[in-house]
Amino acid sequence: LSLMPESVVSGKITDAAGKPASGIKVRLLYWMPTAAGRMLVAAGYTLTDGLGNFEVRRVPPGDYYLEAIPSRNSPLSKSSELDPFEKRPPAPTRTFFPGVPDLQSAKHISL
After folding, report:
1. Which run of H or of E encompasses 25?
2. Residue 20 class from Cβ within 10 Å (0-12 exposed, 13-18 middle, 19+ buried)?
3. d(CA 28, CA 81)
4. Distance (Å) of CA 71 to CA 18, 25, 32, 54, 58
5. What's the pLDDT tens digit per position in 25-83?
6. What distance in Å separates the CA atoms of residue 83 and residue 61, rounded to the nearest whole number?
7. Distance of alpha carbon 20 from alpha carbon 13, whole angstroms
8. DSSP structure class, residue 87
9. The pTM is what?
10. How far is CA 104 from CA 65, 96, 108, in A?
11. Which residues lie across from 92 on neighbouring strands?
């Protein structure tokens, strides 16, 4: 019998004023090799609770990037203006750990 080591990644997401952000989608991403090179895929995801807390369980060892994506209706979305063509709010802005807007600036998490 052999057991596969697994980890839990947890934290809290807040807005600029330090208030908890609920309903934020949190994903752990990793680079997966493919025939064409590599592709960024999700190893797991969850939503923040009413206090802004999140927990992604059963994460195998590896290097990951943490991504937070507010819903279209979230106060954390950059703009509340409607897209004139789609008649709905624009897609929310993704944020990567440690609070940066792009993957190139993000820090990976090693488990």
Report:
1. strand 25-34
2. middle
3. 29
4. 18, 7, 26, 15, 25
5. 999 999 999 999 999 999 999 999 999 999 999 999 999 999 999 876 665 555 445 55
6. 41
7. 6
8. T
9. 0.79
10. 10, 9, 10
11. none
